[in-house]
Amino acid sequence: MPTTMQSKFDKILAAIVGTKAALQQDVGAVSVGLELLHAEHRKLAQRVQETEHELEDMRPAQEAVMQKVAALTDRINIREYCTEDVEGRNRQNNVCIVGLPKGTERK
User: What is the DSSP letter of 42?
Assistant: First the structure.
């Protein structure tokens, strides 16, 4: 009976050792996978940081462009108002064209 019991223990011990080896391989594979993920994460974090710095560097230029666009928009609005004003005044007034003989416009 002790040998039967011993052989059962040996089988159980062999199964445990086999399971332990398989688990160690799995843990090793997971560790390698985690290392790869950490390396990829570091690369992505660095790229994000570089992109943020580039955006910060672009911000003053973008603000300058926005100010320039606002100034040009104001100038366009003023020019439109002036053009409408001149057109309205021309409609109200008889425009004399210098250099044309009188009565030419009726011919």
Answer: H
